Amino acid sequence: MSERPVVEHSPEFFSRSAMNSLLRHTSAVRNQMTDGFRSQSLVTTGCTPKAHYSGVEDEMGKYTFSIQFPCDAEIFKVIHKDFETRDSSKKNPMTIIIYRDRETDMYDYLEVPRYHSLHQYFGFVYQRNQREFYRALQPNTLIPKGTIIADSPTIMQDGTNCYGIETNYANLTMPETTEDGALASIEWLEENKVFCVERRQIRFGGSEFLLNVHGNKDEYLGIPPIGSVIPDNGVVFASRRINTSEEDKFLSSILLHPKFLQDWEYGDTPVHGRPGAMVTDVTILRGKNEKAQYPSIFDRQVIDLHRRGFNFYKSINDAENELIKRYGKAGDHLRVAPKLKRLFIDSLAEAMGSGFIGRPKHNVIYEKLPVHHWLAVVEYCYWITPDIGYKIADEQGCKHIIVAKKPRSEMPTDDEGNIADIVADPQAVMSRNNTSRFIAQYINACSRKLAIHIENWVREGDVNKAWEILYDYYTLITDQVIPMLEDPRFDATQDINDVIANKTVRPFIPMDNNKYLSYYELIQILREKYRPCYGPVTYKGNSGRIVRTKRPCLIGPIYTMLLEKDGRDGTAVGSSRLHGTFGTPTKPTSMADKVALPGKESPVKLWAEPEKRLAAAACGGEGMRTIDEYNGNIMAHRAVMQAIYQTKQPTAIYEAVDWKKVRKTGGRMVRFLHTMFRASGIEIVESEH
Question: pTM for this structure?
Answer without folding.
Answer: 0.84
